[in-house]
Every structure is written in C-alpha cells, then in structure tokens.
Specification:
The chain is α/β, with parallel strands linked by helices and 416 residues long. The chain contains ten helices and 18 strands. Strand 9 (206-212) and strand 10 form a beta hairpin.
C-alpha cells in the first residue's frame, strides 16, 4: 500500500482498520542470493538499495531481536556532512543528499528536519581549525559558513557567551544538517525493502557461519540453517563477535555511548548545537524534549546501559554551554554499542573470504551515514568491488598505513 492523502482518506472511512502491515513476517527460506546479518539501519538500507539499484531481491535480512532495537533506535538523530578529509567528505555528502530525497524515495515520513548544525569555537586556534574544515567542505561543493560571536548570539542567545573558561567566539554552521526521526528510518527502509521482495526475518540470531574450502556456504541461526551465495555482515557493535564466527579478528573496540532526553519544553533550541570545549551536542525534538549526548563511557562493553560518572560529565558540559539546562529535568537515558575503529572511520569492504563482506566501525557516525552506507555497501556486494565513495574505507588500511584519521586522535578509540 502506498501512503498518500488518498489512502489516508480511504482508510479514515473504515476507522483505520484496513491498513496493511508495513512489512511481512516471512519464514526463512532455505537459501538466498544475499544474506545480511543485522536488521538495523545499515542492514535494512543495504537490502533496500540492493533491490532498488541492482535488482537483487532474493535477499534476507536477519535480525536477532526486533527491528529498531539496536543503534538505529538508540542515537541522537543528527545528520550532517561537515567532514574534511577526502575519504569522508564525499561519502557523508552523498548520505546527506540521499537524506534530502529519502522520504519521497521510500514513501515514508522520516520527519527529516534540515534545521542546521552549529559547531561552536572558543579560541583563535579553534576558529582557524574550523575555517580550514569549512574551506575543505566548500572545495567539495558542500555548504559551510563561519559565524562570528554576534551572528551566533542572534541565533542562540541563551548560550553562555562570557563563560570564564570557554568564552564563545563564533561557530561553523552547516545549514543543510539537522535531525531525522530515527525509528522512522528503520521502518521506512524495512517497508521499502519488503515491498521489493526482501525477506526481513526478526528474532533470528546468527549463531555460526558455515565455511568450506574458503567460501561461505551459509549461516546457522536460531531458526535453522540458511544458505547463501553472498554473506554481508552489518552487526554494528556486535561486529567483532559475528566476524569471529568466520575466524576474523577486527580492528574494533565496542564502547557504550549514552544519550539523554529532557522533559518537554516550549520551542527553545532552533538547531543542533555542539560544544567546542567539550563533547556535548543538543537539539530539540518535535515533542519538545531536549535530546543530547557526549562522550563514550570509557570502557569496553556489549551492554546497552551506561554509568553515572558519564551522566555527570555530559550534564556538566551541557550546563557550561547552556546554563539554563540546570533547571530542567532529565527524563531518561539509553545506551548504544559503538563499534569504534582505530582511526575513527568506518569499514565498508570485501574480506579475505571471497563471498563475505563487511560493514562496521562506525564510531559516532553511524546514523547520519545510514543511506550512503547502504547505497555503497549494496554497490560493493553487487559488483564485488567498492564504489569510489567508500574506496578508502578499506579493511586493510590499518596494515598498509593508509588510515583516514578524521579526528586526529591516533589509534586510541577511547579518544575519538
């Protein structure tokens, strides 16, 4: 069923009792052309673009829980393409371009809001660094503006501009950045993939990978054996565990990243604002709650819960930037499992096993990359070679030394 004003009117007459399910609940077949391990945003978008762009529809997406239960539903919903290095900027700009037409593409309201993202700077050196980043963005044809102190004050007057330690001098803004409703992205891609014949199989945990003569034959799951011609791993924070079933040890560490939401407020923050003197970012949801986050919890874990010292750390950074935050109540927090690569850049590549592919290492950038990740991964799987947008996101870059170190922190994922 295609969603439109006409289908809405038609179903209104029947009391909205005749809507079709957004996707099917099929039983797994014995074999598929492509099996995708992981039913999060990246796995679903990969299946969608395999069907839409490459005509590969005999595809199964295996999700160990329910759709939207992983990182796709556990993030702060920010989209942007304000990167600098050649390996990242074209990729994330492709993702933002896909975001801009995504709702019309898969016929689902993902509540895309290009309200702009503002990165504050607090010193002359930081201003020069942001100017360099903005110039690199503009060279790639991406919008970027450097704002002075008064221009920032005009947009967000409630910030602490005269903080004794972190006075605000200005900001780099990308006006096309913004936010998207995270779970709607999962539902939209799932519905789009299902309508093109993809089987989305929930509550189907992969427990083993069958390999013979150096080639993947299929997977063992909690719902039986499933054969495949190609296997695509897309398991986010659990990528290391899944890859280990094929005898691979990935250059990743899994860390907890917490996010928070406040009580509902009247319209307060018009865009996404990030603190330049500490890791803190905040936006306001359509329900009125402030959605914000900060640093990793600082220890390796597969648990989706965080610790209280990090809660205190994030709130301190937020109050330093916006003193008014001290008067609101935090309603809840949640944790996602971040698969942190050693240079802060993801991996979308073939593996040493001829028919097995890898998508992982998303660090903080996973949600904003969802469309481009699926688009590039689908291309890589279908053509058995990377697209130019993910050509530098190679698995062997850590062995060869061709890292894409956007953050400049070196091989310490806890510092990314």
């Amino acid at each position: 069923m295609r969603y439109s004003i006409f289908s809405l009117a038609k179903n209104a007459w029947s009391g909205h009792k005749n809507w079709k399910p957004a996707w099917r609940e099929p039983e797994p077949k014995s074999s598929y052309d492509v099996v995708i391990v992981g039913g999060g945003g990246h796995g679903l978008s990969t299946a969608y673009y395999l069907a839409k762009e490459h005509g590969i529809t005999n595809v199964a997406v295996l999700e160990k829980s329910w759709l939207g239960s992983g990182n796709i539903g556990r993030n702060t919903t920010i989209i942007r393409s304000n990167y600098m290095l050649p390996g990242n900027e074209p990729f994330y700009e492709k993702s933002l371009q896909l975001w801009e037409g995504l709702e019309q593409d898969f016929n689902f309201n993902a509540m895309i809001s290009q309200r702009g993202i503002m990165n504050l700077y607090h010193s002359d050196a930081q201003r020069d660094g942001f100017a360099r980043r903005g110039n690199a963005m503009r060279i790639h044809g991406v919008d970027a503006e450097l704002l002075d102190r008064e221009q920032v004050r005009e947009m967000v007057p409630f910030l602490d501009f005269d903080n004794a330690r972190f006075p605000i001098q200005g900001a780099l803004i990308q006006r096309r950045g913004g936010t998207v409703r995270h779970d709607a992205v999962a539902w939209g891609f799932a519905r789009g993939a299902d309508s093109r014949g993809v089987d989305i199989i929930q509550n189907c945990e992969v427990q083993g990978i069958k390999i013979e003569n150096g080639k993947v034959l299929g997977v063992e799951t909690s719902r039986g054996s499933i054969g495949c011609n190609k296997l695509a791993l897309c398991a986010a924070g659990n990528s290391s565990e899944v890859a280990a079933m094929a005898g691979m040890k990935l250059p990743l560490e899994s860390h907890v990243l917490q996010a928070f939401v406040s009580e509902g407020l009247k319209p307060y923050i018009p865009n996404v604002v990030t603190f330049g003197a500490g890791h803190f970012y905040v936006s306001q949801s359509n329900k009125g709650g402030l959605v914000f986050g900060g640093d990793l919890d600082g220890y390796n874990s597969y648990a989706r819960r965080g610790n209280l010292p990090t809660v205190e750390h994030v709130i301190e950074a937020g109050v330093s930037m916006i003193p008014g935050l001290s008067r609101i109540k935090v309603l809840r927090s949640w944790g996602g499992i971040m698969d942190m690569s050693m240079d802060g850049t993801p991996i979308i590549d073939k593996t040493h096993i001829p028919n097995m592919y890898l998508n992982c290492g998303w660090c903080y950038g996973g949600f904003k990359a969802t469309p481009a990740s699926g688009w590039c991964y689908a291309y890589t799987i279908a053509n058995d070679r990377p697209h130019e947008f993910n050509s530098l996101m190679r698995l062997d870059r850590f062995r060869t030394g061709y890292t894409v170190d956007e953050k400049g922190a070196g091989a310490q994922p806890n510092l990314h």
